[in-house]
Design a protein that fits this description.
Largest sheet: 4 strands, antiparallel
Number of domains: 1
Distance between the termini: 36 Å
Shape: globular
Number of helices: 1
Mean pLDDT: 94
Low-confidence stretches: none
CATH superfamily: Deoxyuridine triphosphatase (dUTPase)
Helix content: under 10%
Radius of gyration: 19 Å
Strand order of the largest sheet: 2-11-6-8
Strand content: 25-35%
Structural class: mainly beta
Length: 151
Amino acid sequence: MTNSVPVAIKRLPHGLDLPLPAYQTDDAAGMDLYAAVEAPVALGPGEYGLIPTGLSMALPSGYEAQVRPRSGLSAKHGVTVLNSPGTIDADYRGEVKVILINHGQSAFEITRGERIAQMLIAPVTHGVLEEVDTLPETVRGEGGFGSTGTG
C-alpha cells in the first residue's frame, strides 16, 4: 500500500506539450521527468548540463521532491543526475531542472520529451540538534570508511 499527498503542479509555456510526470507502474516509487529542451542538447563525455522540465510545483509543507537518476540512462549510456539525489524544497516555486552528467565514453544527445530522471515525493524530518561534550560509546566507535567489513 502506498501513501499519497496532493502536489500542485504548473506547466510552464515551454513544457505545455509534454506529459506530466507519472508513475509507470502501481508500485513505482518515482515519476519520470521529461526534458523540455527546445533543441537537442549534446553532452560529451565528462560534460554536464542543466536540463529544464517545463514544470514548477508547490509541495506541501513537510515534504520534499527528490530527483534521482533513471537506471536505464545510467546503465546504457553512463548518464546520471550529478547531484543525486537533488532536493526540491517545499518552499521552492521555480522551474524543476535536472543536472545531468555524461560519464559515458561517447556523446549523448538529450531530446525534447525524453525521460531524463525520476522524481520521488518524500516526507521530511527535521532533526533537533543537541550539542554535547561527549557521545555515547559504540562497538564501531570512530571507525570510518571500510571499518565494518573486509571489502
